[in-house]
């Protein structure tokens, strides 16, 4: 296995980083945001078309990164429900593409926790099924990272507020609609990430997420570069997958298999540390974690939220959910003041679509991995 990668210590983006100018901000007693769950709070966000009303600041930041050569010009992948594939001539395991779906590790991505550390996180919330998990976390006085879907936050504002204010959980990005990210154009990628960041930012007193996890673990050099260069996000994957999301499906796993996998990993070697893909999707997915939880301490693991593995800040501009938010220049209030339609922007925003080669989308034999929902 690869050696665990240490993240830098506490840090914030410098004023010349594009992420500084993309979102409105203020310190904790500065900007007054609409109350979470109110009509004013939910107004202005997209439904499923994340390119609708894309803020010009995001498009400008993308175009600048493309012009500077920071966004690789590789083709979008295609998927019919399984692992995304690339046109002939583009190796998903090669350095040009480096697809996380195919287990290619970019050195800047986070896959492993430090030795002896159980890096905790949950995907796909907030949902009604999240509450038993949240109550369990509160009872056991532990903090985790929630990679949240933006549209789920809109529909489950109470659960979001509980996670943030009662649990003081760490909130991270899991896109707006949970797509295969490498199948999207550049403009769609910034919509999926940007709208989710904007909603989290406007719902947490101005905190800017620092981490994101691609749905299905589907990221490549183009997508991770957009996340980093436009939004300042670090990509987080995992090194073990329970496949808990598939419990109950005809070709899926079972709860006993998930329980057995968790026990095997927690009682196994402590190098590298664990980052296990888990979901707050159902009573079974949540129940599997709760059943395995006592084993973590019993086997000498240190339980730590994934967003805190580096010992630094949880957010780009704040230490955590209770720390002050670093004052920053006023940016774009995207939800309230959408910019002109994305079609009015320059062509660089959709360069991945226009540059896509024709081909069958075949990949190197034997290099595929199991699909996960992420």
UniProtKB/TrEMBL annotation:
Cofactor: Co(2+)
Coiled-coil ranges (or none): none
UniProt KW keywords: Carbohydrate metabolism, Cell membrane, Cell wall biogenesis/degradation, Chitin degradation, Cobalt, Glycoprotein, GPI-anchor, Hydrolase, Lipoprotein, Membrane, Polysaccharide degradation
Region (Disordered): 314-374
GO process annotations (BP): cell wall organization; chitin catabolic process; fungal-type cell wall biogenesis; polysaccharide catabolic process
Reaction catalysis annotation: [(1->4)-N-acetyl-beta-D-glucosaminyl](n) + n H2O = chitosan + n acetate
Subcellular location: Cell membrane
Chief place where the protein resides: membrane
Membrane topology: Lipid-anchor; GPI-anchor
SUPFAM superfamilies: Glycoside hydrolase/deacetylase
Enzyme category, top tier: hydrolase
Biased composition (Low complexity): 329-374
Protein name: chitin deacetylase
Species of the source: Lentinus brumalis
């Amino acid at each position: 296995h690869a050696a665990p990668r240490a993240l830098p210590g506490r840090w914030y983006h410098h004023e010349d980083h594009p992420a500084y100018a993309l979102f409105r901000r203020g310190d904790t007693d500065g900007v007054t945001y609409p109350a979470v769950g109110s009509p004013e709070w939910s107004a202005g966000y997209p439904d499923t078309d994340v390119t609708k009303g894309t803020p010009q600041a995001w498009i400008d930041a993308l175009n600048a990164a493309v012009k500077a050569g920071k966004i690789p010009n590789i083709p979008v992948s295609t998927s019919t429900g399984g692992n995304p594939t690339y046109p002939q001539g583009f190796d998903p395991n090669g350095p040009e593409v480096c697809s996380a779906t195919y287990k290619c590790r970019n050195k800047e991505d986070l896959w492993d926790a430090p030795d002896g550390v159980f890096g905790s996180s949950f995907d796909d919330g907030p949902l009604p099924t999240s509450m038993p998990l949240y109550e369990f976390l509160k009872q056991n006085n532990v903090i985790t990272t929630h990679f949240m879907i933006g549209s789920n936050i809109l529909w489950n504002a109470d659960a979001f507020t509980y996670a943030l204010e009662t649990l003081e959980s760490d909130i991270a990005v899991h896109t707006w609609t949970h797509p295969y990210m490498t199948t999207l154009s550049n403009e769609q990628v910034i919509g999926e990430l940007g709208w989710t960041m904007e909603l989290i930012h406007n719902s947490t007193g101005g905190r800017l997420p620092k981490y994101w996890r691609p749905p299905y673990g589907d990221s490549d050099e183009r997508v991770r570069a957009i996340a980093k260069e436009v939004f300042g996000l670090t990509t987080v994957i995992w090194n073990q997958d329970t496949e808990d999301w598939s419990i109950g499906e005809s070709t899926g796993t079972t709860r006993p298999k998930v329980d057995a996998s968790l026990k095997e990993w927690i009682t196994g070697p402590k190098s590298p540390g664990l980052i296990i893909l888990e979901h707050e999707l159902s009573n079974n997915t949540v129940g599997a974690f709760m059943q395995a939880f006592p084993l973590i301490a019993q086997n000498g693991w240190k339980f730590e939220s994934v967003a805190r593995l580096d010992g630094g800040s949880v957010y780009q501009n704040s230490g955590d959910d209770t720390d002050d938010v670093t004052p920053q220049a006023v940016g774009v209030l995207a939800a309230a003041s959408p910019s002109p339609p994305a079609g009015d922007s320059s062509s660089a925003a959709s360069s991945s679509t226009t540059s896509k080669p024709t081909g069958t989308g075949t990949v190197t034999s034997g290099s595929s991995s199991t699909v996960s929902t992420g």
